[in-house]
Write a structure and sequence with these properties.
185 residues, mainly alpha, Glutathione S-transferase Yfyf (Class Pi), Chain A, domain 2, 2 domains, 70% helix, 0% strand, elongated
Length: 185
């Protein structure tokens, strides 16, 4: 969370609680939940939009042949992989962590199928797949990506195994890599 946002919320809460201090406990019991709701609504947009805005800026400068991605030349003909982008854009429509993981798996499968079609002479590996996954996530910019990762990790992470676990690890690695890409270049 941006430091200024955190400071603003703390200051607002501190001032508000001082104002309410003279109120009877029954009034405080009614006011504090509403105050917290207001603060968390304010925080929500600051906290959950940070990566989304970073990815928006990246989307303007990152192309399929961006030097940070190093997508092999043979796969560039399939760029920008719109079917994979379409798949991941639907992730917020799913409510359960399992359904969100299935959406991620469908996107990963779509990317692998497209990479296989682009180079029938070899099987694409993680070094081929992850850069394309990063590009697809940047261009699709699914809403609340970080909270989705946290939601799945918290409520379904221990249930992941086999293929699900493999693709989940690739996905989270791609999200972590996106955080490190400089959006000024």
């Amino acid at each position: 969370m941006p430091e200024s946002l955190n400071c603003n919320c703390n200051l607002y809460l501190e001032i508000s609680l001082k104002c309410f201090k003279s109120f009877p406990t029954s009034i405080m019991a009614l006011c504090v939940p509403n105050l917290l709701e207001y603060i968390f609504t304010y925080l929500f947009w600051g906290v959950f939009r940070v990566l989304h805005e970073h990815i928006q800026r990246l989307s303007k400068v990152v192309t399929a042949n961006h030097r940070a991605l190093q997508i092999p030349e043979v796969y560039l003909r399939e760029a920008p992989w719109p079917s994979a982008q379409s798949e991941i854009r639907t992730i917020s429509a799913y409510k359960t962590p399992r359904d969100k993981v299935r959406c991620i798996l469908r996107m990963c499968s779509t990317i692998m199928n497209l990479l296989s079609l682009a180079n029938e002479d070899s099987v694409p590996g993680a070094d081929d797949f992850v850069p394309v996954l990063v590009f697809v996530l940047i261009k699709a910019n699914p809403p609340c990506l970080l909270s989705t990762v946290q939601y799945i990790s918290s409520f379904y992470g221990n249930c992941l195994s086999g293929e699900e676990s493999y693709w989940w690890m690739q996905f989270t690695a791609a999200v972590e890599f996106i955080k490190t890409i400089d959006d000024r270049k």
